[in-house]
Amino acid sequence: MIKVGIVGGAGYTAGELIRLLVNHSQAELDFVYSTSNAGNYIYQVHQDLLGSIDLKFTDTINENVDVLFLCLGHGNSTAFLENNSFSNSTKVIDLSNDFRLNADDVFQGRKFVYGMPESQKSEIESATNIANPGCFATAIQLALLPLAKASKINDTVHVNATTGSTGAGVSPMATTHFSWRDNNFSVYKAFTHQHLGEIGESLAELQDGFNEELLFIPNRGNFSRGIFASIYLKFEDSIEKAFELFEDFYKDAKFTHVSKSPIHLKQVVNTNNCFLHLQKHGNQLLITSAIDNLLKGASGQAIQNMNLMFGLNETEGLKLKANSF
Questions:
Q1: Which residues are catalytic?
Q2: Quick check: 293 and 284 in contact, CB under 8 A?
């Protein structure tokens, strides 16, 4: 069995990880670290886990776990690894943005591989440390990777994407509490979102000389989980050619699926799936992409990466079904 440690155990992504791991046939939780909840039962914070797990949060670590998931705020994973040591055999999967950029950098002897299974599968399988992709970055990249592979991104890429309130984390803020978010909609970080860097790096790895502008408008939606992204760009080939490119690129993908019918968010919420749909309007190709931000955009993809790192079936513990009504 794979012994698992989780750091930052009280947040939404950690909660999703715990839910997945208690039903994973090849993994067992060794510790869940949370200084603010040390001594409390995990089900007292993640209340749906009552009856599923009797483990308590702890403020101590086991440096010999097989894999460590870091579910910390951006910038805090670096600090945690600087102040805590783990065995050389411990694999690390970081869910923050601390190690996503500058893939050649080494931190305290650890080299992090960007963990996008659809484009980095072989690298992930041999990796010791993974930088898990961001949620917006996952939805947007999966809509663009087949075009980059075919060197078809040759003009400005326009992106409009909306995320649910869980994307902002568990700590309440002015723009996340119910009375503000309900029946509301807003734009934030227009053209400057932190996920643009990792998207650009991934596209440049597949398309030589890629330097096209990515114009990204992120939105806050009045729902709790999920991301729906609409991406359009110039594409001179036919819609049939576009579908051919996407279906070929994802022919072996376990969780990314190309739909001939328009998609919607409820098809993917509570799953590790990404659904994609293509439309052609004049010389513009429109790609719509839908994921669950907490699963395919965070914890589900982290488990997918863990499975690959340990030579397991990629789908282990992730055969989840959406509730479409």
A1: 135
A2: no
Evaluate the CA torsion angle 286, 188, 192, 266 in order and state its sign. negative
Q: Is 57 helix (H, G, I), strand (E, B) or coil?
A: coil
- Start-to-end C-alpha separation, the chain: 37
What is the predicted pLDDT for the residue at 260?
Answer: 97
Domains of the chain: 2-133+296-309 (3.40.50.720), 135-293 (3.30.360.10)
- The residues near 7 (Cβ < 8 Å, ≥ 6 apart) are 33, 61, 68, 69, 70, 71, 72, 80
Residue appearing with tokens 């894999």: 67
Q: pLDDT below 70 — which residues of the chain? A: 103-104, 168-174, 324-325
Six token digits for residue 122: 């072989």
Model pTM score: 0.95
Tokens standing for 250? 């994802």
Sign (positive or negative) of CA dihedral 8, 12, 13, 17: positive
Q: What does the alpha-carbon distance between residue 26 and residue 223 come to, in Å, rounded to a whole number?
A: 33
**By the 8 A CB rule, do 186 and 220 touch?**
yes
Q: Can you point out the beta strands (E) in the chain?
A: 2-7, 27-33, 67-70, 91-94, 106-107, 110-114, 129-131, 157-163, 186-187, 214-220, 227-234, 256-259, 274-281, 284-291
- 60-75 pLDDT, tens digit per residue, is 999 999 999 999 988 8
Encoded tokens for 75: 């910038």
Here the tokens at position 140 are: 């947007």
Say if residues 125 and 142 touch (Cβ distance below 8 Å). Answer: no
> Which burial class, exposed, middle or buried, applies to 154 when counting CB atoms under 10 A from its CB (0-12, 13-18, 19+)?
middle
The two three-digit tokens of residue 32, written as one number: 């869940």
Q: What are phi and psi of 91, to 5 degrees?
A: -85, 145
| pLDDT value of residue 102 | 73
3-state secondary structure of 182: coil
CB neighbours of residue 105 within 10 Å: 10
